[in-house]
Amino acid sequence: MVETYSFDVFDTCLTRRVAVPSEVFYRVAVRILPKMGMSASYSLVKDFVAARIQAEKVARRQSDREDITLNEIWQKLAKSMGWQYDEALIQVELEVEEELLVPISVMRQQVQAVRRQGTRIIFVSDMYLPTKFLERQLRKYGFAEDGDVVYVSGDIGKTKTSGKLFGHLLMQEKVLAGNVRHTGDNPHGDYTVPRKLGIHARLFSEVRLTKAEANVLQISHNP
Questions:
Q1: What is the spatial distance between Cα 63 and Cα 54, in angstroms, rounded to a whole number?
Q2: Is 148 in contact with 4 (CB distance < 8 Å)?
Q3: Residues whose CB falls within 8 Å of the CB of residue 196, separated by 6 or more in sequence, listed in order
Q4: Based on the number of CB atoms within 10 Å of its own CB, is 29 exposed (0-12), middle (13-18) or buried (19 or more)?
Q5: Which of 19, 30, 38, 199 is 20 to 30 Å from 162 by CA-CA measure?
């Protein structure tokens, strides 16, 4: 008997209206550079994007946890840009993320169908964005309701990829692995790993780029 349904968040319930996450950083740069008294020129925008990507790498390398938060990334980013760290800077990235997010209708229908059965629903994400931010977006687009829990790797410090985030939710939910059914888009973190733990898993791939689309994107980024 399945007691709990678990859903991944990004590219399962919600997706960004851009092909790759780095496109988010370009939009952040255009907004934040003028706020810092700098021109949003092409070269400075590219420098910011490179710095944002590098800051995340540094934060991950220096962390003693399995995942990191957006706050930790921006602390490294502000330092590399020569800016004084201010949490208000993070809000610019969150605003851009919110504007780019759209719901995946077919998955919303599935979540709502499960909910009508009276089944427990939770959401699980390997993501650096804050839990409260993801909760708000899932509620906004009709996925989450009162009583649902969102488990986010950045805030918890454990990931689906390692399996420890699944272990965490099993303990918190007080449910056996065999009584959980998980759906997500990542072949490893959302399918192989939970199945090894005894969780029923289903791979959702409707919004993943096709091989042809990925090749076009690679060409456009590497002229």
A1: 14
A2: no
A3: 163
A4: buried
A5: 19
Largest CA distance in the chain: 59
- What does residue 124 show for φ and ψ, rounded to 5 degrees? -135, 130
DSSP state for residue 44 in the 8-state scheme: H
The tens digit of pLDDT for each residue in 90-126 reads 999 999 999 999 999 999 999 999 999 999 999 999 9
The two three-digit tokens of residue 27, written as one number: 């939009």
Residue 20 · residue 47 · CB < 8 Å: no
Q: Cα(53)–Cα(82) distance, rounded to whole angstroms?
A: 16
User: Distance of CA 118 to CAs 8, 12, 113, 146, Å?
Assistant: 19, 21, 9, 13
pLDDT higher than threshold 50 for residue 196? yes
Contact 183, 7 (CB under 8 A): yes
191 near 184, Cβ under 8 Å?
A: yes
The span from the CA of 41 to the CA of 25, in Å, is 14
Alpha-carbon distance of 51 to 29, in angstroms, equals 10
- The model's confidence at residue 29, banded by pLDDT at 50, 70 and 90, is very high
CB-CB contact of 13 with 111 (8 Å) = yes
